[in-house]
Amino acid sequence: MRSRDDLDDSEDPGAFGDPGDPAFPRAAAATEPSLAGLDARVTHCAACPRLVAWREEKAHDDPPAYRGQRYWARPVPGFGPADASLLIVGLAPAAHGANRTGRMFTGDRSGDVLFAALHALGLASRPDPVAADDGMTLRGVRMSSPVRCAPPANRPAPAERDTCRPWLARELQLLAPTLRTVVVLGAFGWQALMPALAEAGWVLPRPRPAFGHGARVTLGERDGRRTLDLFGCYHVSQRNVFTGRLTPLMLREVLAGAADAAGILP
Question: In which residue ranges is the amino acid composition biased (Acidic residues) (predicted)?
């Protein structure tokens, strides 16, 4: 499992200002030429004091299920290949999920449901995301979120969402040459994604499209970018899954549609 001792410190984050300054994400993201570099810069961010305090607090809760485990307790970078055709956008890391493991959708029940669906479609190497060193690989798929730190009650504040946006916008820019589809899990992710897409160079319809499970919207080209298809899906939260609002079949249908449009189904 990754720990804070495993961070890539090859580049001084101070070169982009104080990591605790709200301006740090934009300064650090703007000039990064690679996804690997962007992922490394993300992990240094401390621009939202409430989220920094919460992610560190959760790392010391010591729940029985994870007793003795070392928490990542940092912003969580994206996960998946740099030439992905399909991007899955969630909400934010879970306090005892990705905040613990350091990898998107890894270590909680929401991730169990998502990775099982991807594995069933041949897009993930295994169905059980356990830790960042479990050998999991994704084929043609990358995962990200509009907020990179675990928020209290899974509810980031609007200002925190906006401060974090440059990370996602730059990630979209770097993925643009190969990206063809995006699956957005939940209304928060859908709403947060729209300004990031606009900042990354895609044309948004007016009025902006509303979120809905099964929604599909095609964005126009600009600056040489190909059209991009957005797919809406209820979030893979425990509440949605336990109540049956989102079933494994419903999730697989949306993922299959997006993967087919991206040209990555086996």
Answer: 1-12
Q: Write down the pLDDT at residue 20.
A: 95
Q: How confident is the model at residue 14 (pLDDT cuts 50, 70, 90)?
A: confident
Per-residue pLDDT for 158 more than 50? yes
Range of the domain at 135: 11-262
Overall pTM surpassing 0.85 (yes/no) = yes
pLDDT classification of 66: cutoffs 50, 70, 90: confident
**What is the spatial distance between Cα 131 and Cα 72, in angstroms, rounded to a whole number?**
11
- What crossing angle do the helices spanning 248-262 and 109-120 adopt, rounded to 10°? 50
DSSP 115-144: HHHHHHTT-BS-S----TTS---BSSEEEE
Percent of all residues in the chain with a pLDDT value above 90, rounded to a whole number: 83
Distance between CA atoms of residues 26 and 28, nearest Å: 6
Task: Give domain status of residue 1, yes or no.
Answer: no
Q: Please, is 176 exposed, middle or buried when counting C-beta atoms within 10 Å of its C-beta (0-12, 13-18, 19+)?
A: middle
69 and 1 Cβ atoms separated by less than 8 Å: yes
Judge whether 2 lies within some domain: no
Tell me, yes or no, whether 102 lies in a domain: yes
Query: If you average pLDDT over residues 169-184, what whole number do you get?
Result: 96
Residue 6 lies in a domain: no
Q: Is residue 177 classed as helix, strand or coil in its secondary structure?
A: coil
Q: How many domains does the chain have?
A: 1
In CATH, what number is assigned to the domain containing residue 84? 3.40.470.10
